[in-house]
Recover the amino acids of this structure.
């Protein structure tokens, strides 16, 4: 068996798919004799009888059925390879690497990405999660094309599109604290209690202090969902993004302790990319797409803020 022809494999697949030589010839825009000859040549090269021609319609033999299953996989892989080559020739990326940071309101960012990539099936989204200084480190080390996270607005190497603000609220579970009142709580009063923090995923972690009390016992988690679970179960206290805990604040499963001594904090989430490196067609299209959608995200952000304020007033929560 030597020198199998792609044309012969495609003719064989078409006969099986269409059910006859004539239908295959029409589908391939070939003549009936050329399709018949291609299948016969393939059988001769393989030393196998692939089709049973004895009935009204051709059908696969047992060997033909097994061979066709593998042949279809090979043809499909070849189509992918040809598409990949076309993308390379046009300069279009086959993979776009995006990192979401821990401050992101995930439903909104994932919705934005889903709508964009639904129309760009030839480019695969490679999406990862990083925390604290991890996203920016990945971007600066060229391990990501784009990140959704906080970033230094004065860094000349970075270009950003501000999308929405995320409020972080210091919270505890009911009965976590042995004393009454939440508005005048001081860091000194909270120091005996375990504080839950997010682990920095960067290889070279930032020295910036993100809500951490010096001298307090702490535990760490990989993400805010795990952190939320620990706080809900009364194992620690900590700051959580307000979008993640709206329901728990409203129904009393979590209590804000934000006040003048332990204030909340607001972070600006932005789409960030390198200014000092070229960007492919798909990455550039995504950037323009985000620019067009940012106004809608800000309107949603304002509606969310009004809703959160009403909820806080109803529940007596004080958040700064």
């Amino acid at each position: 068996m030597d020198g199998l022809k792609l044309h012969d494999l495609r003719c064989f697949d078409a006969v099986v798919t269409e059910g006859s030589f004539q239908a295959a010839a029409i589908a391939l825009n070939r003549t009936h004799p050329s399709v018949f000859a291609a299948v016969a040549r393939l059988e001769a090269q393989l030393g196998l009888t692939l089709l049973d021609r004895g009935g009204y319609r051709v059908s696969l033999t047992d060997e033909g059925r097994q061979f066709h299953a593998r042949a279809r996989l090979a043809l499909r892989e070849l189509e992918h390879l040809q598409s990949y080559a076309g993308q390379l020739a046009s300069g279009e990326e086959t993979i776009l690497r995006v990192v979401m940071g821990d401050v992101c309101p995930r439903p909104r960012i994932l919705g934005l990405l889903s709508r964009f990539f639904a129309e760009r099936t030839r480019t695969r989204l490679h999406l990862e999660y990083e925390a604290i200084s991890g996203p920016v480190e990945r971007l600066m080390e060229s391990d990501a094309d784009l990140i959704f996270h906080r970033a230094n607005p004065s860094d000349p190497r970075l270009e950003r599109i501000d999308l929405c603000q995320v409020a972080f609220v210091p919270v505890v579970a009911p009965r976590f604290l042995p004393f009454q009142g939440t508005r005048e709580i001081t860091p000194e009063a909270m120091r005996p209690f375990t504080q839950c923090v997010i682990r920095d995923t960067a290889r070279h972690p930032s020295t910036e202090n993100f809500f951490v009390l010096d001298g307090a016992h702490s535990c760490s988690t990989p993400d805010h969902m795990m952190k939320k679970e620990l706080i809900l179960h009364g194992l620690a206290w900590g700051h959580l993004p307000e979008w993640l805990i709206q329901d728990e604040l409203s129904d009393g499963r979590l209590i804000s302790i934000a006040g003048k001594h332990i204030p909340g904090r607001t972070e600006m989430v932005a789409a960030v990319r390198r200014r000092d490196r070229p960007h492919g067609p798909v990455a550039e299209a995504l950037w323009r797409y985000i620019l067009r959608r940012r106004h809608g995200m800000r309107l949603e952000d304002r509606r969310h803020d009004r809703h959160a304020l009403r909820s806080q007033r109803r529940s007596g929560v004080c958040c700064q």
